[in-house]
Write a structure and sequence with these properties.
Layout (H helix, E strand, L loop, with lengths): L3 E7 L4 E7 L5 H15 L12 E3 L4 E2 L6 H4 L6 E4 L1
Parallel strand pairs: 1-5
Antiparallel strand pairs: 1-2, 3-4, 3-5
């Protein structure tokens, strides 16, 4: 299965990252994966808080953490905000 390529803007770091998301993973798992990765690459500047959320500013929605990436409707090229 192909992965979904998205850009994620992290407000706390004022940086944008491009990532591939596995379509079969739940959004909650993706959020945890992103939070851990950002925590590591920021040299612990980004706090490891697993209560983060993904927001789509074009559609003005927060993604439901209990659905899969595929079920959420995420498509290649989406720009998301990571809270």
């Amino acid at each position: 299965m192909n992965k979904i390529f998205v850009s994620i803007y992290v407000i706390k770091l004022d940086q944008e990252f491009e990532v591939f998301l596995p379509p079969n993973k739940k959004i909650v798992d993706v959020i945890c994966m992103i939070a851990r990765s950002i925590h590591e690459i920021s040299n612990d500047v980004f706090p490891l808080d697993l209560q983060n959320a993904l927001y789509d500013c074009e559609q003005n929605i927060f993604y439901d953490p209990e659905v899969s990436v595929k079920e959420s409707g995420l498509k290649n090229g989406k720009r998301l905000i990571f809270f």
